[in-house]
Amino acid sequence: MIELSAEDFEQLVVSELDALPDRVVDGLDNVVFLIEDRPPDGSLDMLGVYEGFDLTERGAYGYGELPDRIILFREPLLAICETIEELRDEVHITLVHEIAHYYGIDDEQLHELGWG
Question: Alpha-carbon distance 49 to 71, whole Å?
Answer without folding.
Answer: 5
